[in-house]
Specification:
Helix 2 packs across helix 4 (about 95-130), helix 2 crosses helix 5 (about 130-175) and helix 3 (about 65-90) packs antiparallel against helix 4. The chain has helices at about 10-45, 50-60, 65-90, 95-130, 130-175, 180-205, 205-235. The chain has one domain (about 15-235). It is an all-alpha fold and about 250 residues long.
């Protein structure tokens, strides 16, 4: 018979495991934030709603950046999957159903994001390949570029629905776990409301959306940067409650 002796070193390793997992999540979250922000900045630079000529010219002038933003979005989407799986491992003991919902929302968001990237790639191909200019004429190809960018923009909003939804179970799990400050869980759940409100207004009341958008940006930035910083710097609160310690696997 093999006996297992719990030594102080083993106990320390067991207790510190959640902190290591949390900091791994923090690194993954940082990758998602950096690559996602880069892709979004490039999109905002080239896409001019309602102006086909300028949008097409911007795509041509910034073609290398547009290609990089395409790759950056694929990278951030991939790391978003890694991130949610790590967070699932960290928080599944709090409520497995809510942790599964968190994973499902991210998987849906990543799937929509990756499919939607085809529109951005299509805009780049039409804008930079002379074949399309010859086939549709300069005006026609410019309008086609704008159409593809419009589709990409709206597809991004659809993906944003699920990106917002995943923050609610994350915030609720963080709030209930005792591993994070409760206000952090609250602002993450508030970010869900902000994201969904922004999407609804973008589709139904664009003028009002432009007015509300600065407040939305403040809420979502505060929530996600706070979570990212806490994961990287603190990991989780220590000492953890005895009934919530994770056993290293």
């Amino acid at each position: 018979m093999i006996s297992t002796t719990v030594t102080p070193e083993n106990k320390k390793s067991t207790v510190s495991s959640p902190k290591r997992i949390a900091r791994t999540a923090g690194v993954l979250y940082l990758v998602v934030a950096i690559f996602g922000a880069f892709a979004q900045i490039v999109r905002q630079q080239v896409y001019v709603p309602g102006d086909a000529t300028t949008s097409a010219a911007n795509v041509v002038a910034s073609a290398p950046l547009v290609r990089l933003s395409f790759v950056a979005d694929l990278v951030q989407a991939t790391f978003a999957l890694f991130l949610v799986f790590v967070l699932f491992r960290l928080l599944q003991h709090v409520d497995r159903s809510q942790a599964r919902a968190m994973v499902i929302f991210v998987v849906l968001q990543v799937g929509i994001t990756c499919l939607n990237m085809v529109h951005q790639l299509g805009a780049l191909l039409v804008a930079t390949d002379p074949f399309y200019t010859a086939a549709f004429g300069t005006t026609g190809s410019d309008k086609l570029v704008l159409l593809l960018l419009d589709l990409h923009h709206n597809g991004f909003l659809v993906a944003q629905i699920f990106f917002g939804l995943w923050l609610f179970p994350l915030g609720l799990l963080a709030y209930r776990s005792g591993m994070f400050p409760r206000p952090l869980g609250v602002v993450l759940m508030a970010a869900t409301v902000a994201y969904l409100l922004d999407v609804v207004l973008q589709f139904l009341a664009p003028v009002l959306a432009a007015t509300v958008n600065p407040l939305v940006i403040v809420v979502v930035t505060l929530s996600e940067v706070s979570m990212l910083a806490y994961l990287l710097v603190k990991g989780v609160k220590t000492p953890l409650p005895a009934d919530r310690e994770l056993v290293a696997t």
